[in-house]
Amino acid sequence: MTPGLWPPSGPEIVFLLLGLVALGSGVLVVTTKRLVHAALWLVVCFGALAGCYLVLTAEFVAWVQVLIYAGAVVVLLLFGIMLTRAPTGRSEELDSGNWWAAALVALATAGVLVTVVISGFRDAYAPLEPGRGSAGEIGAGIFRTWVLPFEVLSLLLLAALIGAIVISRTDITGRR
User: pLDDT tens, 133-150?
Assistant: First the structure.
C-alpha cells in the first residue's frame, strides 16, 4: 500500500519551495535586461536545483550541479561576457519586441510538458531512500550510457570559449 499524497511530507514541501525558487529565478534569467544580473539569477536557479537534488537524496548529483553548473558554466558565461565586451548595463537592444510570442510558446511548451509528466507518472510513487543517487550508480550511468553526449558537450563548451577569445581579440587581422 502506497502512502497518500496528502498531506505532503516535509521533504515534499521543501522540494516544492525549491522548485518555485528555481522557476522564479529561471523566469528572471530570461526577462532581465542586464546581462550580468541574468548570469547571477542563473546561479540562484542552479542552486535551487541542487537543493532539489539534495531533497531527492542524490548528494553526488547535487554537488556536481553546484561545482559544474553553478561554478564552471556561470564563470564561463561571465568570462564570455567580459571577453566579447558585451554591454553589462541595462540594454534596450536585448528586447526584440516579440516577448508575447515567446511567452505564448513557453506556456504551450510548459503545458505539453506538464501534461506528459502527469499522464506518465500519475500512479507512480517513489519513496525517498538514502543512497539511491550514489556516486557509483551515477558514474556507471555517465560512463556507460551517457559518455558520448558528455564528451560532445565538453567539446562544445571548449569551442564556445575559444570562439569568445578569438572574437574578442582585436590584434588579429585578416592578413596572413
Answer: 667 777 777 778 878 887
Please list the residues that pair with 34 across neighbouring strands. 90
Q: Which residues in the chain come in under a pLDDT of 50? A: 1, 176
What lies within 8 Å, CB to CB, of 90 at 6+ separation is: 33, 34
Distances (CA, A) of 170 to 78, 84, 87: 19, 10, 17
* Predicted TM-score of the model (pTM): 0.61
Q: Please state, in angstroms and rounded to a whole number, the distance separating the CA atoms of residues 14 and 103.
A: 28
Candidates 41, 42, 43, 63; CA nearest to 53 is 63
Q: What residues does each domain of the chain span?
A: 10-168
Topology of 10-168 in CATH? Four Helix Bundle (Hemerythrin (Met), subunit A) (1.20.120)
State the Cα–Cα distance between residues 74 and 79, nearest whole angstrom.
Answer: 8
Question: What DSSP letter does each residue of 10-40 carry, written as one string?
Answer: HHHHHHHHHHHHHHHHHHHHHH-SBHHHHHH
User: Please, which residues bridge with residue 90 across strands?
Assistant: 34
Q: Helix %, strand %, coil % for the chain, to 5?
A: 70, 0, 25
Under DSSP, the state recorded for 122 is T
